[in-house]
Specification:
Elements: E1 17-21, E2 28-29, E3 32-33, H1 37-41, H2 43-51, E4 55-59, H3 76-85, E5 90-91, H4 99-102, H5 106-113, E6 118-121, H6 132-135, E7 143-145, H7 147-161, E8 167-171, H8 177-189, E9 192-195, H9 199-206, H10 221-234, E10 237-239, E11 244-247, E12 253-256, E13 265-269, H11 271-283, E14 286-290, H12 303-314, E15 318-322, H13 324-332, E16 341-343, H14 347-355, H15 359-365
Parallel strand pairs: 1-4, 1-6, 4-5, 6-7, 8-9, 8-14, 9-10, 14-15, 15-16
Antiparallel strand pairs: 2-3, 11-12, 11-13
The structure holds 3-phosphoglyceric acid and magnesium ion.
3-phosphoglyceric acid binds next to loops.
């Protein structure tokens, strides 16, 4: 594996035009940015470059406009915030307004690198996408990873390659199928896996529990059963909820054991599970958390996620939180300063833990100055 070039490998940049791929895919509500974490996270790199006389032009995607201009996904709110935080820095329009971005079209790459002297990738959250702006510019331009990307890679590969044990991963979120590969890969590196969120219902169903109308994926039951069986052979512990809360068939708040009646649905882990999961986090020496325990944006179903967030803040373990929703949950509870690393990437952090590499990193290793 050849080296990934870092900022000093760009050489002299005074007066040069540097394209910085950032992940400014921030939540926007009615034209207002509700969390500017990803913009602030890119500032050290931007400042490093401007302090050395570079003319910085940033480029990012925002949302999923599917290759067409769409005012709903305009970069304008981001441009305004960036102008406050880093005056004088240019920002291109949403990369995904052009189908060439996701299609990794050589002509679109050519338009991106036109008039540009060097390329910096600081878009950790998008490095798992082999899109034009991620993998294209390093083919021809002197390139480097930015300070944010470097930090993310250090922390997450550190977890993957040399964690202090016990190493616990806590997985939640809304879907299971896109994360089953991760469950399998994580079981190779972690000692214990805690499963909440929508994912837990398919696992609970695999154990024969009635789950009512909870979100689940029937075609994944066999995979879940296999993962549970395999874990017994390897001595890895998979922790599943022992109680749940949600809505009964009449739409009223309800507490369930492990049997969710017909018409009812689980929307959060119950208090017993929250306490048990919290103990696992407290006793760990390394914890990686991705995904709320389920519907944490609804205050009735936030308790499980809040308990996990509090345990992340309280444990002596080295704590890493991956990505959008869990990072937002931490911020919502005012605990974002109390973990060791909040990653700007959700999918990217999971893929880096899973594969130990990302398309964006591979591209940088192939740069002419690498
Ligand atoms: C994210 O928010 O996960 C990243 O910005 C990547 O966005 P995407 O999932 O739409 O590719
Ligand atoms: Mg994503």
């Amino acid at each position: 594996m050849s080296r990934i070039p870092t900022l000093p490998d760009l050489g002299e940049i005074d007066g040069k035009r540097v394209l910085v791929r950032t992940d400014f895919n921030v939540p926007i509500d009615n034209g207002v940015i509700t969390d500017d974490f990803r913009i602030r996270a890119a500032l050290p790199t931007i400042e490093w470059l401007t302090a050395r006389g570079a003319r910085v032009v940033c480029a990012s995607h925002l949302g999923r406009p599917k290759g067409q201009p769409n005012p709903k996904y305009s970069m304008e709110p981001v441009r305004q915030r960036l102008a406050e935080l880093a005056p004088g820095v240019e920002l291109m329009e949403n990369l995904r307004f052009d189908p060439g971005e996701e299609g990794n079209d050589p002509q679109f790459v050519a338009s991106l690198v036109d008039g540009v002297d060097a390329y910096v990738d600081d878009a950790f959250g998008a490095c798992h996408r082999a899109h034009a702006s991620i993998v294209g510019p390093p083919r021809t331009l002197p390139s480097a990873m930015g300070l944010l990307l470097q930090k993310e890679v250090d922390v997450l590969l550190g977890l993957r390659n040399d964690p202090k044990r016990p190493f616990v991963a806590v997985l939640g979120g809304a879907k299971i199928s896109d994360k089953l590969g991760v469950v399998e890969a994580l079981l190779k590196v972690v000692d214990e896996l805690v499963i909440g969120g929508a994912m837990c219902f398919t696992f609970l169903a695999a154990l024969g529990n009635p789950i009512g109308d909870s979100l689940w994926e029937p075609d994944q039951v066999d995979t879940c059963r296999r993962l549970l069986d395999d874990s017994q052979g390897t001595g890895k512990k998979i922790h599943l909820p022992e109680d749940l809360v949600g809505l009964d068939a009449g739409g009223h708040f309800a507490t369930f054991g492990l049997r969710i009646p017909d018409g009812a649905k689980g929307l959060d882990i119950g208090p017993g599970s929250a306490a048990a999961f919290s103990d696992v986090v407290m006793e760990a020496r390394t914890v990686f958390w991705n995904g709320p325990m389920r519907k944490s944006e609804d205050p009735r179903f936030a308790a499980g996620t809040r308990t996990i967030a509090q345990a992340m803040a309280d444990t002596k373990a080295f704590t890493v939180v991956g990505g959008g929703d869990s990072a937002a949950a931490l911020a919502q509870f005012g605990l974002d300063d109390d973990v060791d690393h909040v990653s700007t990437g959700g999918g990217a952090s999971l893929e880096l833990l899973e594969y130990g590499d990302l398309p964006g990193l591979e591209a940088l290793r192939g740069a002419p100055n690498a």
